[in-house]
Design a protein that fits this description.
heterodimer; A: 239 residues; Rossmann fold; three-stranded antiparallel beta sheet; B: ABC transporter involved in vitamin B12 uptake, BtuC; 13 helices
């Protein structure tokens, strides 16, 4: 049994089902990219995987000893965060909030783990800086460090490179690849950047209100769906 | 110096004045702490909406000859719950819905007051506050409220920071963000009802918004913003109330004016600081 398994799952709101026919398994060590047009159900699926939303039909299961609060999540950046007065260390440390339980304060171990993750992402020198004064790429690294504080198993990234310039984008992708290959973290990433998705991922999940494709990236490239999507055509919906 | 002490001791020798100062200081403290989180979460409008709802509730309570606090606190808490829901649900136009609710409550309040004959308080007192309105029950309630708010901020500081900074992440790792939001909204409701008769329904939301914004100009950490905001708020209230006593000015308006001056001062300070910093680079 894999780390995360969707069994014939459908997710939706009161107004109706957003995405259905979800049937896939993510194994430990996979690098899965979720692609699809706007409104295809990517964000809804993320909510389902985070257990913020239970499936209308079918099941979403976690295995390999993955607990629900052991998913490291990198949400899309909200407007409020850009001018938020916070220290970088404070932000990274808040990744340990689920480990606190009823205790009001962070332990020495929490702080050590936060420091290690800052180091791992090469931003230890920014520890005492103010979060809102960092560059976009540095902010994303800090949030990635925070996500690592919550997990050492599965990272869930929602359009992590949105708003970054090309060099910062490449750096972030390389960092995520390093975490996947060297640290053995499983990656699930929602991405609009299909070219980079194909370059870095091992598996692709293509959504269009239902599951259009799930498989290895190598298999995906051969499909008409992929060709249509890459060249900006509305591929897959018609055939 | 001796003159100031003289003014202060004379001011505090009046019972109603001493009560107003105690309630005012505690309410400013609570409002500023809660305000940091509300402003950063982009919920400033909730404070404003709640004060208008509070005005309506107060008017109805007076008309029906009921105790003002026992009626308005539950009503405003309910409104807080509702407004929070509206703000969280982006499908409805949140800010427009809050404006609808607050103006409706205001309209109901004004109508109720105007048709009630024989009330001895006029609309002006509700709108812009009165220093005479605090009774011993207000003092007790404000002490209890401050204790709760301070305990919340000391013991749940890390959770409040996390939920304020990134609610999506907090929810994802299993923190009950909704509980903290509701708690903030309820405590804000009590703070507003308590401070409203003193500061005025039109002016009370300044206590929530100004100190947070002022301290965000000069502080860079969440912790320092929280502490600075509390200090700014309490100091501004005290200066405002002394000025209003000395020069016979309306209390609420004086306190807001002092807050405004503090904000402008902080803004200038941050501009100077930032321009110097940029030269260094």
């Amino acid at each position: 049994m894999g780390l995360v398994t969707c069994r014939d799952a459908a997710l939706g709101y009161d107004t109706g089902i957003v995405v259905s026919g979800l049937d896939f398994t993510v194994e430990t060590g996979d690098y899965l990219c979720i692609v699809g047009e706007n409104g295809s159900g990517k964000t809804t699926l993320i909510k389902g995987l985070l257990r913020l939303k239970s499936p209308v039909l079918g099941q979403i299961l976690t295995g390999d000893g993955l607990k629900a609060n052991e998913i490291g999540y990198l949400p899309q950046q909200s407007a409020a965060q850009k001018d938020f007065p916070a220290g970088v260390f404070e932000v990274v440390l808040s990744g340990r909030q689920s480990k606190q339980g009823a205790m009001p304060f962070y332990t020495r171990q929490d702080k050590r783990i936060a420091l290690e993750n800052l180091d791992k992402l090469g931003i230890a020198h920014l520890k005492n800086r103010c979060y809102r004064e960092l560059s976009g790429g540095q902010q994303r690294r800090a949030l990635l460090a925070r996500a690592l504080c919550a997990t050492d198993k599965l990272l869930l990234l929602d359009e992590p490179v949105a708003g970054l310039d090309p060099p910062a984008t490449k750096e972030l992708y390389d960092l995520i690849q390093m975490l996947n290959r060297k640290q053995g973290l499983t990656i699930i990433m929602v991405s609009h950047d299909i070219r980079s998705a194909l370059e870095y991922s091992t598996h692709i999940l293509h959504l269009g209100s239902r599951q259009l494709f799930f498989g290895t990236t190598r298999d995906y490239i051969k499909t008409d769906l992929a060709k249509g999507y890459i060249y900006g055509l509305r591929g897959g919906q018609n055939n | 110096m001796g003159k100031i002490i003289n003014i202060l001791s004379k001011m505090m020798s009046y019972d109603f004045m001493a009560r107003a100062v105690i309630v005012g200081l505690l309410v400013s403290l609570c409002a500023s702490l809660l305000g940091v989180s509300l402003v950063l979460k982009r919920y400033s409008m909730i404070g404003d909406g709640l004060s208008h709802v509070g005005f309506g509730a107060l008017a109805v309570a007076t008309a029906a000859n009921l105790a003002p606090l026992t009626v308005s606190i539950p009503v405003v808490m309910l409104a807080a719950f509702l407004l929070l829901r509206i703000s969280e649900n982006s499908k409805i136009q949140g800010d427009a819905a809050i404006a609808l609710i607050s103006t409706s409550a205001l309209a109901i309040g004004v109508i109720v007051i105007s048709v009630t004959k024989g009330t001895n308080t006029d609309v002006y007192n509700y709108m812009f506050g009165s220093i005479l309105s605090m009774d011993p029950a207000d003092v007790q309630l404000s002490v209890a409220l401050s204790i709760v708010v301070i305990i919340l901020f000391v013991f749940f500081y890390n959770k409040i920071f996390a939920v304020t900074f990134d609610e999506a992440f907090s929810r994802a790792v299993g923190t009950k963000a909704g509980v903290y939001n509701t708690l903030l909204a309820i405590l804000t409701a009590v703070t507003i009802v308590l401070g409203m008769r003193l500061m005025g329904a039109m002016l009370i939301s300044a206590l929530i918004i100004f100190p947070a914004l002022t301290s965000m100009r000069i502080c860079k950490r969440f912790k320092t913003v929280v502490i600075c905001s509390a200090a700014v708020s309490v100091t501004c209230f005290f200066i405002g109330v002394v000025l209003s006593y000395r020069y016979s000015l309306p209390t609420g308006a004086s306190v807001v004016a002092v807050n405004m001056i503090a904000f402008i001062f902080a803004q200038l300070l941050s501009l100077c600081f930032y321009s110097r910093a940029s030269i260094k680079i």
